[in-house]
Design goal:
The chain has about 900 residues and is α+β, with helices and mostly antiparallel strands. Helices cover about 35% and strands about 15% of the residues. A hairpin with a 6-residue loop joins strand 17 and strand 18 (about 515-525).
Length: about 900
């Protein structure tokens, strides 16, 4: 009898675990409801999900009121560290507004302006998504599609022509786009066409509701035009090219290398270059642990010999190949209104011209960053899987990302996307969750071509033969401008010829018709960008690891993907198309286009960096080196930096490794804390504290101050005024003495080691982009010098001037104290409090909507945190007769 009762208890437990719980909303007749999520999730999108500022909203905001609903209602949560807005799938019963734009489609809006779209079919779902996105992000959607299509000048006037020339050069013709469209799967076709139909339905609605027209169109004296399917494809190409790929800037390295050789001699100059721009360091922090595999993207037998040969070749190249029409270096057409003799500009024209220029600058600046972490059952209190996602694409009104939720036609997903793209790009379903971070592996390469002939007759030399370049003519319409203000329709145009070689588009060339040099760029994913849409749409329908990995095989971009699911699995992939590289090439420099350096086939999916359920129990990526053996030393700017022992990801690693009982709540705390930590503290504080022990009283005081520091670059607990006031527009605060002194000491260390090197390369490699307190490549070189055990590389010269590490660090502390005393007029450490670093949050145009200043945090500009329920053990599922046997993870604890 007792066995029977025990069985009934077990069966009741199983029913509660494996049968979806009915949402309260589902019981209400005619009301949709999401599936029961196997866990919980939160999300946050500062400053808010809407980007709509109407003319009335602009007037109200300018007068001191609000600019619009949901435009700035998540700022205090974010910058005040007060929590999150989204709470998993939205319950339609709680909707503040409901739209029914067409049969089979319902859109429920929550109080933060996030739409939850329900559709009878997949096409219906994406119709609703397009309709909803156009309501809150129409102008940004227009800007994205126009930059992707190369029609930006039709919106902003002559200032947009250089960008359009670049786009037309690098992307595809109308016929090529039509072929790509025809190749889409039925699911992707429905998504693209449904999204376009929905967006156009809202644009048509604006004819009846002009009061809802975004004010940007009024400012620029134009109106939105309907989208078409190719606009969506072009937007996808834009995002994959700007956020999810890297390379093409090799000529910048050529220029810096040449400068070093001229100043320090060939060998010493090359030594400085490789010290600061290295290909691989075996001590670099990686996402894939060494025990999970070593992955090789270029099997070079003698890397130094390859570099020396390529550097000899680079020395022969004209620096004029750095810039050309395909890089955006194309003159904007002259306009009568820009004449020096023009009358005094109208104030309204000045504002509009500034808006046009700001939009161009904003769209040019698109880059990816981002943090991701997955924690497996072995490190969680409940034996479940957790995931953190924090894409970093900057702050603006509105942000580049927009949050949405989709249900129906096989889709059940919530997360973020880019306006004009019919996907939930970063997010979760009821059973799986994923995060994206830009991979920054080199997927764009420069080839130096030998060409001859003029327009329509261009040839290039390849494999010993002169071959005709593939050329076409592009007409680029643009609006006229008066006093800088774009006016009227796009009646003027520029006509250009764009050409490709076997390697790709020609972006720059020497002048003339005779034999000369040109530079082409090869995109690894050329012609295959839109395949990624197929993969992402499959993520939105995924149920388990098998589904998700199958979808990963479809994506062609280089976006690191970190994963967790309800079965207790965690995983990481470094995807994309990575072709077999010539063994005698060097990633940092351009290659000859004569055929001797052509690439081979793409590496198989299994050969790309990845890990599933690693022994260490977690996986993190913050744009760091993906795996051991993988070359990553492109070194152009703060994005493609070579991996070292300390990069920002070490803060997340340290916080994860500090405990093995993580919960949904501790992961949220970790997400916030990682954004407040000075990454440089991890390697340098212990070295400084040790070096000053036994030093002068002033040095010892610095050591004591840093030894007790919590590592935060700013600390809300000690400076609460930083976060005071809803919708505040000014940062009014300072950082603590320890953070201030430490920053000064780190700056002094770089002066002590590199101050005598007059090189733009040092300045570039000290750059960290938007990650203000990150450990730069130059800082990793400093660490290599001061603590050689942190690197597998040996510096090419003595940067210390014969001093010991202790002497260098003590000299740096003395230098820093002298500078701090001069700056603050005091010799008391507790008096040193620097102004808090700031993040400026402007509208896309710079003139419509709010403009605020917030305290700097290195957090995601969209965040979601997911905690799944503990998986059901296999034995229990089998007892219940469950159809889908899930993997047991409890046995491993």
């Amino acid at each position: 009898m007792r066995h029977t009762q025990f069985g009934l208890v077990i069966l009741s437990l199983i029913a509660a675990l494996v049968v979806p719980v009915t949402s309260p909303a589902r019981a209400q007749e005619g009301l949709d409801a999401p599936p029961a999520m196997a866990g919980q999730a939160v999300s946050l999108l500062p400053p808010g999900n809407s980007g709509l500022v109407t003319a009335d909203g602009q007037a109200a905001g300018t007068a001191g009121g609000g600019y619009g609903d949901n435009l700035d209602d998540q700022s205090d949560l974010y910058w005040g560290l007060e929590g999150y807005a989204g709470q998993g799938f939205a319950d339609p019963a709680d909707a503040v507004r409901t739209d029914t734009p067409t049969d089979g489609v319902t859109v429920y809006w929550d109080r933060f302006g996030v739409p939850a779209i329900y559709g009878d079919t997949g096409r219906d779902v994406w119709f609703g998504a397009g309709y909803a996105m156009a309501q809150i992000r129409l102008f940004l959607m227009d800007a994205v599609r126009r930059q992707g299509r190369g029609t930006f000048a039709e919106l902003v006037g002559p200032s947009g022509v250089p960008m359009d020339v670049q786009t037309r050069t690098l992307t595809y013709s109308q016929a090529e786009y039509e072929a790509i469209l025809a190749s889409l799967s039925p699911e992707a076709t429905d998504a693209v066409e449904g999204y376009v139909e929905g967006a156009n339905a809202w644009i048509a609605e604006l004819d009846r509701r002009p009061d809802l027209l975004p004010a940007e169109y009024t400012l620029l004296s134009t109106r939105p035009e309907p989208l078409d399917a190719i606009d969506v494809l072009a937007s996808g190409v834009l995002i994959t090219r700007t956020v999810a790929s890297e390379g093409g800037g090799e000529m910048d390295n050529v220029a810096l290398l040449r400068q070093l050789e001229e100043e320090y001699g060939v060998q010493a100059g090359r030594g400085l270059f490789t010290d600061l721009v290295w290909n691989t360091d075996e001590q670099a922090v990686t996402t894939v642990p060494r025990e999970e595999g070593v992955f090789v993207n270029q099997p070079v037998t003698d890397a130094d010999a390859a570099f020396q040969a390529m550097a000899d070749y680079a020395a022969t190249l004209p620096l004029t190949l750095t810039e050309g029409p395909g890089t955006g270096a194309y003159p904007a057409p002259s306009s009568p209104g820009l004449s020096a003799s023009a009358a005094t500009p109208d104030p309204g024209a000045v504002v509009a011209a500034r808006a046009a220029e700001q939009v161009v600058a904003y769209m040019r600046a698109l880059r990816g960053g981002s943090i991701a972490a997955a924690i497996g059952p072995g490190r969680t209190a409940e034996g479940n899987a957790l995931l953190l996602s924090g894409p970093q694409l900057g702050y603006s009104y509105p942000s580049l990302l927009v949050e949405l939720e989709v249900h129906g036609g096989g889709y059940d997903a919530r997360g973020a996307s880019v306006p004009a793209l019919p996907t939930v790009g970063i997010g979760y379903t009821d059973r799986v969750a994923w995060a994206l971070t830009t991979g920054y592996s080199k997927t764009i390469d420069s080839y130096i071509e030998t060409v001859r002939g003029g327009p329509g007759e261009l040839e290039y030399l390849h494999d010993g033969q002169w071959k005709p370049a593939e050329c076409r003519t592009e007409d680029i319409p643009f609006r006229e401008a008066q006093q800088g203000l774009p006016l009227g329709p796009a009646l003027r145009s520029e006509t250009i010829e764009v050409c490709r070689t076997v390697h790709g588009p020609i972006v720059a060339a020497e002048e003339g018709d005779g034999e000369r040099l040109a530079r082409s760029v090869q995109y690894q994913m050329f012609g295959r960008e839109i395949e990624t849409v197929e993969g992402v749409l499959a993520w939105n329908r995924a149920r388990d690891l098998e589904d998700f990995e199958a979808a990963m095989r479809l994506v062609t971009w280089n976006e690191n993907t970190t994963y967790a699911d309800a079965d207790g699995h965690i995983a990481y992939w470094h995807p994309g198309i990575h072709r077999e590289r010539p063994v005698d090439a060097d990633l940092r420099l351009p290659m000859p286009g004569d055929g001797s350096f052509d690439m081979g086939d793409p590496l198989p999916f299994e050969a790309l960096p990845h890990a599933v359920d690693p022994v260490q129990g977690y996986l993190t990526n913050w744009n760091n080196k993906p795996a051991h053996g993988w070359f990553d030393g492109v070194g152009v700017g703060s994005t493609s930096r070579p991996g070292g022992a300390v990069q920002r990801v070490v803060n997340a690693n340290r916080l994860i490794e500090s405990r093995d009982d993580h919960t949904f709540e501790t992961l949220q705390a970790l997400e916030q804390e990682a954004g407040l930590q000075d990454v440089r503290a991890v390697p340098f504080v212990p070295l400084i504290v040790q070096a000053v022990a036994g030093g002068s009283p002033a040095q010892q005081a610095v050591g004591a101050l840093l030894a007790s520091w919590n590592g935060r670059h700013n600390d809300p607990a000690s400076a609460p005024t930083l976060f005071a006031g809803p919708g505040g527009t000014t940062v009014d605060g300072t950082d603590g003495p320890a953070a201030t002194v430490f920053d000064a000491v780190v700056e002094a260390i770089t002066e002590e080691l590199f101050g005598d090197i007059d090189s733009a390369l040092v300045t570039r490699q000290l750059g960290v982009g938007s990650h203000v307190y990150d450990n730069s490549p130059a800082h990793n070189l400093a660490l290599r010098i001061l603590d050689p055990a942190t690197s597998s590389l040996t510096p090419s010269r003595d940067y210390t001037g014969g001093r010991t590490t202790q002497q260098v660090l003590r000299d740096a502390v003395d230098r820093a104290l002298a500078e701090l005393t001069a700056q603050y007029g005091s010799g008391v450490l507790t008096d040193y409090r620097r102004p808090t670093a700031q993040s400026t949050v402007n509208n896309l145009t710079g003139v419509i909507g709010p403009s605020t200043t917030k305290p700097y945090q290195d957090r995601g500009s969209y965040i979601h945190v997911v905690g799944f329920d503990p998986p059901v053990p296999v034995a229990v599922l089998r007892l219940a007769g469950a159809e889908r046997v899930q993997t047991s993870v409890l046995a491993s604890r």
